[in-house]
Structure formats: structure tokens, C-alpha cells
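comment on this one:
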Amino acid sequence: MKLIDTFPTNEYKGLQYRVGRVLPFGATLVEDNGVNFSIFSKEAVSCTLVLYRHGEEEPFAEIPFPQEFRIGNVYTMMVFGITIETTEYGYRFDGVYDPRKGLRFDKNKVVLDPYAKSVSGRSIWGKRRKPSSAFVHRGQIILEDYDWEGDKPLELPMEDLIIYEMHVRGFTRDPSSKIKYPGTYAGIVEKIPYLKSLGINCVELMPVFAFDEFEYCQENSGDSRLNYWGYSTLCFFAPKAGYAASGPLGMEADEFKNLIKKLHQNGIAVILDVVFNHTAEGNENGPVISYKGIDNRTYYLLTPDGEYVNFSGCGNTMNCNKAVVRNHILDCLRYWVAAYHIDGFRFDLASILTRDKKGNPMVYPPLIDTLAHDAVLGSTRLIAEAWDAGGLYQVGNFPSWRRWSEWNGKYRDCLRRFVKGDAGCAPELYSRIAGSEDLYNSRGPAASINFITCHDGFTMYDLVSYNEKHNEANGEDNRDGADCNDSWNCGAEGDTDIPEILALRMRQIRNFQTLLLTSRGVPMLLSGDEFANTQYGNNNTYCQDNKISWLDWNCLDTNKDLFTYVKTLIALRAAHPVLRAPHFDSEENGTGYPELSFHSTAPWELDRNAPALTFAVLYVEDHVKYKTEKDAFLYILVNAHWEEQTFTLPELPAGLQWHLACASRGICCPAGQETQLLVPAQFTLGPRETAVLIGK
């Protein structure tokens, strides 16, 4: 029996249609082989649904929305008889065209549905269309029929995460990855055993929302520079089809879901890097793709004369705290959690999300509040990059409602300066290692996402190999990218065959990893840092779809010892919950020792306000408090000085002796095989060296 509200009342060129359902927005399958189309526009005077067959330039149908199909500011229509596997769609909006007033309606342009769940046109990475054919991003309709086999978001405790930031394509694109489907979602599935062996339990994927890699394609010495990173979103609801081996078959959604399910089956959570601060439409000189032609004054921050406010550094800024836009973002995140089982989101330039319609930062931004308290997102991890390109820096002050964590840029900067030899950083460094209580007192250490490197900047190997950026390949005369990197080349710029310099570089990398993985807070590693991957001194590889950006898996064989060292530290962190404590308690516990304390080369003696290049950290794990088998004592020794330093070790309870777990000189002992010290009360660190001792 046909339902009353799906009974067609109109017909156009053989297609039957009727007034649709306002919610949900987008294109949704309904009963009786119908598709419900629903889209918002406040200021348009009319809207037309445009339907195409795959690969055809001209539409096979254009159905104007009758005025009675407009409910409030929503145009909605059910269309029956569409073959969804071969259909693409878009909209034409008519209205006033007056850019100085922020109005940019043009009925001659077909615009993309911002709620489209799939976007055609870029299903094969790097494949160009014929120069003679007009390129229009079109929506596609997908079946939400993936078999999750009981999967759901993992809900791992935030403090337990070891985050691994990766680029979907770059992670496996290089031939050295030796996998069947390089550069794809399926390719990552093949590398899950590697991630497990390293000890990773959370991957953070750089943007996977649909974007156009040819957005600002340029030629430089015969090489194409593409939009490689993807921080320029076309559609927030659709996965990047060009990242899917099955993209040409229209199966990118299922392939991505399969990746997430496989990661979950191996205990690995998935965080998406999302970019709501701007879109691919750029400024007043940019293209009309979607929002500009739908309701420009609603979606973007504009000056009084209709130009685009640019707090993103990318041409435009989304009006994130406008009610419609706020709900749009909320709908998007709910969809990814419900339909894709995503565990968390990292928000690019999140400070923009705190700005009002005039661009001023708000104390209680509605969007941040809404996301913090939403029911669907109740166990979803929310991470802010707490700054923007307009100069708003909110690290430690991002509105949180105790739900938001932050990329801790102060942690990164402090550790970089200290490890290369800045003694003045020591007083701040103690706070950073202890979880940055000065920044996150009310939230706990897990609010601090600790990192030393990320996609934006040097890799860890380049951090110890270059004093200056080398971005010439980007074609901008080396003007792009950050000039201040707090890096040190250890005595030679770039490639060298001097053994002493090479040894120092590897020791410095181990020093960074030792501090990162024994600090309280949530550590984040850049993919490839565990085997000294290089970008050849390029600190802004946004446009490099080549060996500059792709991981060179040959480095894993060359630097297997480094991989083992990082793996051992991750295992140590996983074995000792005192390193992952969700609180700032450093007072004495059941052991009679303070849980966390800092020392000089002599135990219990340290002026925390004085410059220093040597110190030690003592963690004492109370087995009752942390529900472990026995108390644990960890002593992390740090020497950033250019001369060796001898440490007197703290006295342990009767029956325990200090053992060496690892040292950045290249010593690494598996759990249970730590080496007992020959001199039980002392340990000497060489120049620029760290070590981890364990009481057994």
C-alpha cells in the first residue's frame, strides 16, 4: 500500500514528484523508489532541481520547485523513478545579484548540495577532465546499507590515546609501501598490522572530506603542484572519492567505512581533521561552487561592502555561529559519528569557531557550547587547534565546558627550544611535562594534546637536520611556510655523511620521543617520525604530491632501531597508568612518595624557577590507586647539555634496584628485560642524552 505522503502529485518529463519532507536536508532515499531532496536558502526567490546522468554534460531533467514546495526557507521535493546508481544532481538558485550587498545568486550556475553524501568529478586522484568540458561538482545519492557487523565508536579514554597523524594518500602512496592499493583507504587497511606493532591506538586522518586536488594546480619545472593536504573543503558530508581504490565505482563511502571498521576491530580509534573555518570557494574572486550561490550572506562573514572576511588565511571565513551554519556543522558531525562511527574530530583553526558575525571572539560561543553538550556527540573526542590566521591564539583559554582538548602549541615550542639547548625553557618545561596544569587546571592533563611535529612544519628528522626551511619546490621563492621552526641541524644543513652528526641527529630524535611519550597529556606522533622520514627540509608540503610528502618506507629498514625505541616507549606508557593520569595530583600516595616530582642531578633538589639543561622526573605508581599488580618507579633523566652529566639516583624501597629501560644513545630493553645498573646509586648521561630507569 502506498503511503499518502509519498504519493506523487506532479509529473515532469516522465518523472513523478510531490512536495517533500523538510528533514533531513540533502538527498535521502524514501519509500516507493523515491528520493527526498531538501535544501535551505533564505534569500533566493526560486530553486530548480537539476538532474544529470553520469558523464553527461547536459541535464536530463530540471524540475522547478513550486512555491508550495517551499516550507519556511526550505525547498523540498520527492522525486520518483530515479536510478540512483547513474544519477547526479545539483541546484539552480535565482535571486538578486549584487556582490556589494553580499548577494551572488546566478540561475545560470548549478551549485552543489552542501549535504551531498557523495561528490562526483574527482573519483580518480589526479585525473583531469577534458579541457573542452565544463567541470561542475555534483552530488550523488548513496545507499546507507553498509554491514558494520556490530561495530560502534570505541570510546577509548582520552588519556589512553596514542594519536598518530597521517595523510591518507601519503601514508602508502610511495612504491616502498609495497601494498596492493597505494594511496587509498584500502591501503591503510593493509598497514594496520604495522600500526598495531608500533602500539598506536588512534589515527588522526588529515582532511578526508571532498576537495578538489586541482583547486590551485600550478606547473613548476614540469611538476604539478596540487591541493595535496585537502584543507579546502567542497562538501562536509562526502568522503574524498579520489582516496578510494573503488572510487571510480562510486564505492568510496563503503571503502572508508570498511577502513574504520577494520581499525576498530584492532582497537584503533579514528579522529578526523575537519575544516569548518572556510571553504574552497575563496574570496570575491573565487569560484561559485555551493554556499555562495545558495545563501552567501548566511554562510560567510562579510564586510559591509560584501567582501569576504579572511580569518582563515584562505580567502573566506564561515559564519560559524549563525544559527543555520551552526546547525549545518552539528548535522555534519552527527552524520559522521552515526553513519561512519567516527571517534573524534580535530578542528582546524578552531578559534574561528568562537568568532561572532563581526569577527569578534565570544566568551561563550554557541557552536562550541552546542558541540560540547550534544547528545549524539556525547562520547566523541573534540580537539581544537586553538588559534587562527587572524591572530587569535587561545591555547589554554579555548572555551571548553571540560569537553574540549587542544593541540598544545606551547608544549611543542617549549620542547623544541629546550632540546636544542635553551636552558631558559626549563621552568616552563616542567609544567609541560606534568600536563600543563597552568593551562588546563580545570580540565586535566588529557586536555593537552602534546606534539613536537605535525603535518604543518618539519618532520622530526628535518627538525634536527635543517636550520632553515627549504620550500623552493613550492614555487613561491621559499617565502611560504614558517620562518621560525626552533630547529637545529646538529652541525650540517641537510644531507651529510659525517658519522658524528648523524649519530647526534638520531640521539636528538630519541630525546624528543622520550620526553613526548613520558609526558602527561595525550601524545601525538607524526606518521613516519618513528623511522626518521624526511621531507628534505620542506616545512609546508601542502602542494607536494610526490616523494617530498609520501612516506619512504625504506627508512623503516634503515632506522629499525629508532622504530624499536619508539615502540618500546609506547609500550612503557601503555603499561604504566601513572604516565597517563587524568588528574594533576602530585601529592604523596600510598607509596609514601609524591606521584610526580622533579629533580636535578641530585634527587629532591631542584630550583624550578632557574634555567637548567639537566633534570630528572620521578613517577611513582601506587598499585592500589591505579589497580596494577605492584607499585612502579620510573625515573626519566634528561641532559640537554653538550657535556656528560652524572645523576645521583633517588633511594628506592627495600628490595628494589634501578634498571635501565632505554637510553637515547641507542639502548632499548624490552619489558621485563631491563638491565640492572652496575652502580646502583648513580647514572651518567652522555652529551645531549636522555634515559628511562625503572625500579624493579
